[in-house]
Each structure stands twice: as structure tokens, then as C-alpha cells.
User: Fold this.
Amino acid sequence: MGLSRGGRLEEKVWQEFAGDPARCRQVAETIRATLIATSEDETIEHIDGSEIEEAEEGRLITGLHQRYERNVAIVKAKKAKVLSTAGKLACEACEFDFRASYGERGSGFIECHHSKPPSELKIGEKTKIADLRLLCSNCHRMVHAKRPWLTVEQLRAMLLR
Assistant:
């Protein structure tokens, strides 16, 4: 049939496109064009200055994404270790504490930054708890806003200016 070990979603895609290679090619070209169009930096400097009052949104787009696997167990271990030693989960750059600001809803909430990106790990290489940093959402976005990425120490220095 064409699939030797695919999952349910792969089977669904196969059923949809196996008999229509022209449509498959068209969708693939759309995905490629979308990836190229959205790969540019999305910072405010790229807005051309034209004023816009409304825009159509909500169109369903199918995309193809590759991502590097992360192990949630080590993230939970990092959070547990910090919680047991510091008594709270606060951003290592700006010290924001979700629980202090949002109460129970923010309890346990914080993002985990890999100081060595999973994309740079060799197969079989392990991440240590010391390689992980806890960051609030804003600081995590700022670390990854532009390449080269900032270290947490560089970001903290920027905040202290």
C-alpha cells in the first residue's frame, strides 16, 4: 500500500493524497512557500509602516514542522530541584514568579531553556540538569529573538542596565 510502519495520521495523509499526486504537489509547494515566507524575523523593524485597521485571519493552514525531541522528565527534575532548594520557581533572568503573580494558576508554571540547544546534541548525548535554565515566557522569547541567541547571563546583564 505504500506505508510500512506509519501511524494513524500518516495513514490519513496517504489516503488523502495517494490517488492525487497533482494535489499532493500543490500542497507541498504551498507548504514550502509558507515556510519561506514565515522564516523571516518577525520583529517590529520589519513592519513597513503602513497603517492597517483590520485583517482577515483564521484560515486553516496545514504545515510541516520538524522539531528536536525534548525529554520532559529532565525538565520536571529541574523544576523539582529548584523548588526544593529555592522554594519557588522564578525566572533566572528577571526573577518573575508566576505563582506570586497569578496565585494557584501560576503554580509550577515556568519555561525551561536548554543552554545547549537540542539541535546541537549528537545522538546519544545527554542533557544535564545544569544545562537547563528556568525562564519566564518573555525572557525565553528574548533569548531566542535573534541569532546569535543570548545566554541567560547576557540577558540578565541587559535587564540590569
